[in-house]
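[Automated response] Your request has been received and processed.

Submitted sequence:
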Amino acid sequence: MLEEQKPTSQFKNSARKESKISPLQFKKSVLEPAQPDLQFQEDKPSHVPNYDYAHFLTVNIPTTPPPITPSLAMSPPFSPETSRPIFTDPQVEQYYLWLQQNNAVTFPDAVIQAYENAALEIKQIGSQSVRTFAPFREETSAFHVITIKQIVFLALLCCLWLIGLLALRLTMVTVTIGAITFLYIFGFLTSSILVTKSSHKKSGEWISEKIIQSLDQLGAEWPTYTILCPLFKEVAVVPQFVEAMRALNYPAHKLQVLFLTEQSDAQTRIALEQMRLPSNFIILTVPKGTIPLK
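Generated structure:
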């Protein structure tokens, strides 16, 4: 039998002498096993509303699958050694690994709770109360239409223009008209180039039906999506809107459709209830807030 060897007194004394630490520190660092770091759970409880959840929500997952090196075509479809799928199409491998990477993203309960607390918090901006049902950042909101740096820059530009007008008079007027004409022509040409380029490109990521079938055969787990559908006094468009959501070609157990209605809009809710919605279609009544849904 193997017995655990305990450090001798000679080893203890030499270790203390070389490291120059106290006996208590020596016991904690050498003789006792390291304890897991529980500082996150102790210092950041789930009920703290100002928890820095932005660090966790910023996940480095690409919106489109990154390019990879094509793998060799092999059979059978699964490797007997690793139980991993063997890909014969590089695009199928590309999307399969991307789906696995996205499905592996998780957030701690404390981060989710902090996000909910921040979304329900009422902000006081001057004399106005703001509740957006999402984490509100005043510095990037529409309450700030111009920054301090922009004000300083415009003030300096106006001062320089006035000085030039007093010193050069008619020449400064000619230069000003020329600069405005140049900016107008430059903006028009830039917009024309961007429109021309965008018209020749497809928007979004297009996947062929063959790739989708191959991913299904490999048992790829598709991500779960939630579609938010805000409606306000739109009884007439409810049937067409619901049918458009029904026509989505996506697994029903991976798709959630939320119809968001205002608390004062009972007619739209009645129209939705009469449509006999499937189980993954849910009607939600949003409480009265300072900003309407639409």
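Summary generated for your ticket: The radius of gyration is 31 Å. Residues 170-199 form the longest helix (30 residues).
If you did not submit this request, please reply to this message.
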